[in-house]
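REVIEWER CHECKLIST
Item 1: Sequence provided? yes
Item 2: Single chain? yes
Item 3: Sequence as submitted:
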Amino acid sequence: MEEEQIPEELSEARSELRESGILDTDEKISADLYPLVATLMEPRVIVQVEISGSQGVTRSGAVIGDDFIFTHETWPGDTESEYVPAEPETLVWALARMVDLHRDFTDEFQGDDVIVSTMGAFDDVVTHIETGRYEEPGAVAEAANAPVRLAEVLSQLNCMWRMTVAWKDRDAQAAPGNGLAVAALAVWDCGIEGYWLRELPAEPVTDGQVDRSSELRVRRTTARELWQMITDLLPDGAQLAPAPQAQPAS
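Item 4: Structure as written out by the authors:
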């Protein structure tokens, strides 16, 4: 993209790019792909969506630049992603669709349904449910030493999803570290038991931060509330660091 000399060790990769049509006969990136490549090289905001379900883990998301937005999705078991241009007005809708956010009768839920336990109990409940040794939630809860309500909710689990947004923060530029701001949320989609927001361990979670003794707290929520949470994850213009300035030619 910067039209510099390509090292010899990348000659095979260059040939593959040429054969696929990404590079034209002049060794330049195809004009149709320039918006995507430019956005990937200088992203202002990155959104990652991780969905864990019966088909395994899929990763999707979005990349936002100064001029273009692209969403990307992949199929379970596939290593390639499909990138699609998006408009700012459709971004929240696209992210909600990735996690299959939908309204149903649980959106009429009123109350304060909260489950408190530990991550160890959660792991044990999931293990017992997957093995099928116990059919009733009460038996699962007893075997896992967990709240019955936790077993009831997880028995209806469709998938778990986590959405993480990262950007260069205006206020974090002078602080130690990489100047990145991160916001995230984790949700259980439990079918007839509705949506559950994991409040503890709070996202974003780093490696080694959570063990079996860590407190687990989930709260029942609605698709309407989650839509607003997804919207609030995205930074506004005032939160973004200034775009990098092009260096003058010497």
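Item 5: Key structural point noted by reviewer: The mean pLDDT is 87.
Item 6: Recommendation: ____
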